[in-house]
Specification:
With 178 residues, this protein is α+β, with helices and mostly antiparallel strands. Helix content is 52%, strand content 10%. It is built from six helices and five strands, in the order H-H-H-H-E-E-H-H-E-E-E. Strands 4-3-1-2-5 form a five-stranded antiparallel beta sheet.
């Protein structure tokens, strides 16, 4: 009821330890960028690594070397894609999202919020997290590429805070005051 055989338990400990050590080694070799939280692509790679490690440990039909090769393949592909995205605008455009301006100078940009499926309550929550009482105290609110919401309190001392954030669409209505 609790386990099949003592050998099965021993296999989990031995294979789990070896697979874990292999993963740590691969992550150290590939660098810090492998498990960053920059965008959806990075999240998918992180989840895939965890799922692969789990399969190696718990699935008897997956041999240790096959599983370690799977880990190495995922990490190598992630490294190749991120390396390529630094050198190719086309690849960068395929895997990277741009940050989205959700509010500017105290007004919500409703079209951007609808497009990104962000509610007014999401924006207000981000403001509260930054210690702001209302939208008028924010110079800008940005949905980052990793899904987090950043609040810029004042443009006067952080003029570069919106670098890399596309301006609101010119054909969209003016930001609404809330």
């Amino acid at each position: 009821m609790f386990f099949d055989t003592w050998f099965g338990l021993l296999r989990v400990v031995v294979v789990g330890t070896l697979a874990y050590l292999a993963l740590i080694l691969f992550l150290r070799i590939s660098g810090k960028r492998t498990l960053t939280k920059l965008n959806a692509f990075d999240l998918v790679v992180t989840v895939a690594l965890g799922s692969t490690l789990s399969s190696i440990i718990l699935t008897k039909s997956v041999a240790l070397l096959e599983g370690v090769l799977a880990l190495a393949t995922l990490i190598a592909l992630q490294y190749l894609i991120t390396w390529s995205s630094l050198r190719s605008p086309l690849i960068r455009g395929l895997i990277k999202a741009e940050p989205t301006l959700l509010a500017l100078k105290g007004g919500l940009i409703e079209s951007a919020m609808r497009r990104q499926r962000v509610t007014r309550d999401d924006v207000l929550s981000a403001l509260r997290s930054e210690g702001l009482g209302d939208l008028s105290q924010a110079a800008a609110v940005v949905l980052e590429t990793d899904g987090s919401i950043s609040v810029i309190k004042s443009l006067s001392d952080r003029a570069d805070g919106l670098a890399g954030v596309p301006p609101p669409e010119t054909n969209s209505p003016a930001p609404s005051r809330s």
